[in-house]
Amino acid sequence: MLRPPKFRAVLWAFSLLGWLLFGVGCAQQPTPTPTPTATPLPPIELVRTQGGSVIASARIQPAQRAE
């Protein structure tokens, strides 16, 4: 049984609209993934020994606040 031409036109228009919306939704760029921020390195202090040579001493400082 054939449907009336008006019904077929409306069905065709909604099908076209659905495919267009589907195509637009799939064509969008994905959201970029956030990059983690680097933890700053603690300052390195130079310590002089009795022999006059210099050694590096890295003392880890506790974090002042968490982000």
From TrEMBL:
Identification of the protein by name: Efflux RND transporter periplasmic adaptor subunit
Which species is listed as the source? Candidatus Thermofonsia Clade 3 bacterium
